[in-house]
């Protein structure tokens, strides 16, 4: 069903928007979940890639770097395309292309280098999903509902990751890793078709007739010369770097520093992930209830809380009480994973109305660069000077970012 604003009155358009927005949200969540099964699911297949091509540990790790690198290459360009042509067509085409690429990878990956090529391309196509879903929320939901809607949509990422972690390794063991890739390919194609059938660009809070007229260089200059924008971008870089550094190194920290068995450490980490899903759904909505229109203030307190939790983690003795570890990981999951929709919505709302997807894509590209860079830097510092110095660097970055952001909260609408 397609409804054109030229064929209905403004009142009818508003009623249609209010009733259809929840379908749009459901489609956005489903698309994000299915896309995550394809992209994030690759993390769960790394051991099988390592075995199939006799890779070193470093080579196996580079497979994920290749996929993230693909996102860095394409995200801004896809954001520009969505601002100009709407998210429906771009997300539909790229999700179908991502699924087809996974199928091609299963069919033609005869060497490590051919596999790397296909993983880069999967990252290239996946880069449209996050900005496209965010623009869909901005298009269809009024400001007082965007926090909850963004949180619900963002929950699709960890949900898809969890589904992939359950299903894909089982398929790879029971049948073959290529079968897992075929399944991912079909899922990606279905997600693209679903988004294309049910999403609409023609009605909503944004005027789809406004084509993006701001060039990407003009957009960058506009964002980078505004102190508030710079503070928000730096906050995203810092929190993304913290989240993925924590995910990369926390199991080793718990096992080596606190002498906690790896299986038990993994259980604590799983608790953080589960709470993180709840945090992604709730934190943006709670912020809008407590401090309407003041999301930067919430981000400041989240960063301060994360720095305090890391300090508490550093002060733990060997073999700490389980209840203390669980408590810390509950709050680390709530704040350290749940922060993302809050920040993402702030970026989208400070963007020019004709360049929302481009702005979100630019901000997420900066985050991806930090995600690629900080975990190995953290590991190097651990090797040279120990965990105290490495976690200390994270604490300093969080507090500096919080201080910078707090100076700009008075400028927020």
Task: Please tell me about this protein's structure.
The chain is globular and about 60 Å long. The longest helix has 30 residues. The chain has 17 helices and no strands. 82% of the residues lie in helices and 0% in strands. The chain is an all-alpha fold and 413 residues long. It folds into two domains: 189 residues, MFS general substrate transporter like domains (Growth Hormone, Chain: A), CATH 1.20.1250.20; 193 residues, Growth Hormone, Chain: A (Up-down Bundle).
Keywords:
413 residues; Growth Hormone, Chain: A; mainly alpha; disordered N terminus; 17 helices; globular; 2 domains; single chain
List the helices and strands and how they pair.
Blueprint: H1 10-39, H2 41-52, H3 57-85, H4 87-108, H5 112-126, H6 129-140, H7 143-154, H8 156-174, H9 177-198, H10 216-224, H11 227-256, H12 262-290, H13 295-314, H14 322-336, H15 340-350, H16 356-385, H17 387-406
Helix pairs in contact: 1-6, 1-7, 1-8, 1-9, 2-3, 2-8, 3-4, 3-5, 3-16, 4-5, 4-6, 4-9, 6-7, 6-16, 7-12, 7-15, 8-9, 11-12, 11-15, 11-16, 11-17, 12-14, 12-15, 13-14, 13-17, 15-16, 16-17
């Amino acid at each position: 069903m397609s409804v054109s604003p030229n064929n209905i009155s403004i009142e009818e358009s508003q009623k249609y928007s209010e009733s259809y927005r929840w379908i749009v949200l459901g489609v956005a969540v489903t698309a994000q979940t299915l896309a995550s099964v394809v992209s994030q699911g690759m993390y769960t297949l790394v051991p099988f890639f390592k075995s199939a091509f006799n890779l070193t540990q470093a080579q196996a790790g580079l497979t994920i770097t290749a996929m993230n690198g693909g996102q860095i290459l394409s995200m801004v360009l896809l954001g520009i395309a969505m601002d100009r042509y709407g998210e429906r067509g771009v997300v539909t085409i790229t999700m179908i292309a991502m699924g087809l690429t996974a199928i091609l990878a299963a069919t033609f990956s005869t060497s490590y280098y051919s596999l790397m090529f296909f993983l880069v391309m999967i990252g290239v196509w996946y880069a449209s999903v996050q900005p496209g879903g965010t623009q869909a929320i901005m298009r269809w939901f009024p400001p007082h509902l965007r926090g909850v809607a963004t949180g619900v949509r963002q929950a699709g990422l960890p949900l898809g990751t969890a589904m992939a972690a359950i299903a894909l390794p089982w398929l790879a063991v029971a049948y073959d890793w290529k079968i897992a890739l075929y399944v991912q390919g079909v899922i990606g194609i279905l997600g693209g078709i679903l988004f294309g059938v049910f999403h609409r660009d023609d009605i909503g809070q944004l005027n789809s007739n406004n084509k993006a007229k701001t060039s990407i260089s003009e957009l960058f200059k506009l964002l980078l010369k505004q102190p508030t924008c710079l503070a928000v971008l730096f906050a995203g870089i810092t929190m993304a770097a913290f989240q993925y550094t924590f995910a990369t190194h926390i199991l080793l920290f718990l096992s080596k520093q606190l002498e906690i068995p790896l299986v038990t450490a993994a259980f604590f980490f799983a608790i953080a992930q589960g709470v993180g899903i709840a945090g992604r759904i709730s934190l943006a909505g709670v912020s809008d209830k407590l401090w309407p229109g003041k999301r930067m203030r919430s981000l400041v307190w989240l960063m301060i809380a994360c720095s305090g939790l890391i300090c508490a983690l550093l002060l733990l003795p060997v073999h700490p009480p389980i209840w203390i570890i669980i408590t810390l990981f509950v709050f680390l999951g709530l704040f350290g994973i749940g922060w993302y929709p809050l920040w993402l919505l702030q970026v989208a709302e400070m963007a020019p109305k004709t360049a929302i997807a481009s702005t979100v894509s630019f901000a997420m590209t900066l985050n991806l660069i930090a995600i690629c860079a900080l975990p190995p830097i953290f590991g190097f510092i651990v090797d040279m000077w120990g965990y105290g110095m490495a976690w200390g660097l994270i604490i300093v970055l969080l507090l500096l970012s919080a201080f910078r952001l707090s100076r700009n909260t008075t400028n927020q609408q």
